[in-house]
Amino acid sequence: MAVLTEAQTEFFEAKIARDEKIEPRDPMPDGYRAHLIRQISQHAHSEVIGMQPEGNWVTRASSLRAKLILLAKIQDECGHGLYLYSAAETLGISRDEMLAQLHAGKAKYSSIFNYPTLTWADIGAIGWLVDGAAIVNQVSLQRTSYGPYSRAMVRICKEESFHQRQGYEIMAQMMAGTRKQRAMAQDAMNRWWAPALMMFGPPDNDSPRSHDAFNWKIKRESNDTLRQRFIDKTVQQAEVIGLTIPDPDLKFNEATKHYEIGPLNWKEFYDVIKGNGPCNRQRMEHHMQVHEDGAWVREAAQKAALNGQKPA
Amino acid sequence: MDNQLNIWEVFTQSKPGQPYRHAGSVHASDRQMALQNARDSYTRRGETSGLWVVRAEDIAATTIEDNPSFFDPNDDKIYRLPSFYTMPEGAKNI
């Protein structure tokens, strides 16, 4: 990586100022490239690790319909991981390096996937709340300044809307069911609500990398703005199906027309990021195991391709 | 170093008659695997009538820094545009 010339810097900054997308072969500052590699690879890892809590329920889905839907959703998550790895690769990092960073604990993934899926209602809560929060974030990221990332977001947002709807449908069905089913749905709501809100990241006054990300137009809206948008949408949806938001301080502010929430437990958030969540170890061990188990397939495929190569 | 296979760029056609557009990339060891992976990754909603895959390293591309001098032979040839020509007053359908 080289330091940009004055002309290159001017070119980059002018493009950002005009709201044009930066493309892989454009000159860009090292800091911009490094920020994107970190953000996009962590986004990709989240999609891939996110398959594990859902995969836990495939064999126990509540009906054949539910099973087919869950399989399709998990396949989408894998696809979304691939779109994002593909976007990150355009910045000059290899898939191999990204996986090595994940396995070494250098690259993170969304800490929400370190929580377990204890009941079928958790599959509903994940689709509705976790994918719902991800969609709010990703809709905003469609306007990010890096072309390949932005295009991956457009594709992902198109596909994600069914994810949220299938989750909400599960919750609605359970809330229309027996007393036991309603209790199960409420329990899932109680466990996933706060972690879903924390998916947007720390409050704006405690978000260390935001300054550069805003200047470079990688990030277009603040953590708190996005979180508020999600809260305002979701409270109404919970009310419609009779779920209670697990926050005694929740109130609607007539003046601002926004819901206000009580304090979130950021200590727990940082603890889970550090590796102390209920499933951190399990998630990483499973990922490494599957990756190693598949190595012979990649080797065999490569050898077969070389053997089959005809002279030019 | 783990073997992650080669990168192939993927181009999709949304309907017959439409141009092929870049969609992203996949990893694969050969053409057949590249096509299958591209199908699984980029056409899960039945919105594709055709797929192209090409090894990423086989693509030649301009860089934005080359662009001004690379494309400037076209800048002084405005007579390639229909608006360059003066048509006689009253002439129709031209």
Can you tell me about this structure?
Chain A has 312 residues and is mainly alpha-helical. Chain A is 66% helix and 2% strand. Chain A has 13 helices and two strands; from the N terminus they run H-H-H-H-H-H-H-H-H-H-E-E-H-H-H. In chain A, helix 2 (30-49) packs antiparallel against helix 4. In chain A, 35% of the residues are buried. The mean pLDDT of chain A is 94. The longest helix of chain B has 12 residues, at 31-42.
Q: Which pair of chains forms the biggest interface, and how many residues does each contribute? A: A-B, 35 and 25 residues
Number of helical stretches of at least 4 residues of chain A: 13
Q: In order across it, which strands form the biggest sheet of chain A?
A: 1-2
Query: SSE order of chain A in H/E notation?
Result: HHHHHHHHHHEEHHH
Secondary structure: number of strands of chain A: 2
Strand content of chain A: under 5%
| Biggest sheet record of chain B | 3 strands, antiparallel
- Straight-line N-to-C gap of chain B: 64 Å
**Secondary-structure-derived class of chain A:** mainly alpha
What is the overall shape of chain B?
elongated
What is the alpha-carbon Rg of chain B in Å? 21 Å
- Average pLDDT of chain A, to the nearest integer? 94
Helical residue percent of chain B?
A: 10-25%
Q: How many helical stretches of chain B?
A: 2
